[in-house]
Sequence to fold (320 residues):
Amino acid sequence: MSRPRAAAPRMKGGLDLGGTKIQAVVTDGEANVLGTARRETPHGGPEKVMLELAETMRAALDDAGVELMGLAGVGVGAPGSIDADSGTVLQVPNIDGWHAPYPLGPALQEELGRPVVIGNDVNVAVEAERRFGAGRGFDSFLGVFWGTGVGGGIVVDGKHLVGRGSAGEIGHVCSKPGGRRCNCGLEGCVEAYAGRAHLEERAQEAAKERKTILFELMEKRGRDRLTSGVWLKALQAGDKVAEELIQRAVQALAVGIGSAVTLLDVEAVVIGGGLGERLGPDWLARIETEANQHIFFDDKPAYRLAELGDLGGAIGASLL
Ligand SMILES: [Zn+2]
Fold:
């Protein structure tokens, strides 16, 4: 007996575009990942990045054993400001050679021959945690992604709060008036103390006067930057510079989180991102203790680590 063929493909592609890597997934349309691929983000401008995104997607399809035409569509989570309607990435702070708006959606759609939708990388990661990860079961939560920068997203009453398009930028909440200059141009941002890029700058300054194993660890691992893994190793080895800088980062995060929770009264705080996930439960507990000191009411929120890890952004993008 012959069965009717499925009318339309259900599988989806998701791409997470980061400053250092591109992560691709093929999913069954929900949270089940059928194939993955990861590549380095190339230097040299948006068109190169677009072609590498397409290659990474093809590699994930190979991994899944799925044809390109089997995909209903591809979602891309991209950093910076996005015009979702036109699929244009307006501004990208962390990718070399990408200085002007670029129509990433239309260009990638032409390259792949499948529909492409673009969204903000942090928003899609929050959406993935809401539907399939640590945000499940909460009607409202604050997502904080602690990595190269510090991103955030807000779910209130079951809905993603977007404001005029940029709500949730907890990394650029002021944690210290007149404090360190942030990449965004403002002073004293949470990110200026907690973002991995800023932490590395401060570690370099500290290394001129004090002993730290951070940069030895970096070289031993063959890396050219202080990755989340390097920070974790240095902390485990009792490196004083690492301990002080991460503690200062936690303080800044705690001010931002405490203020946001006081304002929004969310049920939970979900911490993800490279540093958030690598540093794990012990540091989550420190963030909780410090952030709770800045929360007005006695009924404190729950604190959870993001559950979807490295693939969260790409899975979230596939939902676009
Ligand atoms: Zn800032």
In short: The first strand starts at residue 11 and ends at 17. The CA atoms of residues 89 and 111 lie 17 Å apart. Residues 240-264 form the longest helix (25 residues).
